[in-house]
Amino acid sequence: MRSKKLVEDLTVGYGIKRGNKTFQSAPIVADSKQVFFLGGLFDAEGWLELDKGRYLRIRLEMESYDIINFVYNSLQSMHLKPRRHNRKDGSHVVSLYRQNDVKCFLSMIFLCHPKWHPSRKIFRTAEAPNFLGYTRPTM
Predict the structure, then answer these.
(1) Residue 60's CATH number
(2) Host domain of residue 105
(3) Is the model's pTM score more than 0.85?
(4) What are residue 136's phi and psi, to 5 degrees?
């Protein structure tokens, strides 16, 4: 994307540095926008796994410890129980394993990338509170 206005908004307005994003620190995100930031991050970098053919897992892996730590703390503040670990290659991973946490995450965070569509079929009838506290079907 080559938009001077967008680059200016991101660098000046949000304090995001230009250049390689591998070792960027976590941006300061207002609590009201945290859900949207997490949605964008998981949409771009996260993935869905099927463990043992029946349990869904949500994972995010990055080189930046600061961003993974930010995501981990954000998920905890949303009353989820994420797990965090380091890989031998130096990357860091945050995961959601508990099925109730996966359901809640999928109901609270708006994900639009097609890779998340299989979760809609599995949790179509499940109910979980959304980020406003209302209970609704997850998909």
Answers:
(1) 3.10.28.10
(2) 22-137
(3) no
(4) -150, 160
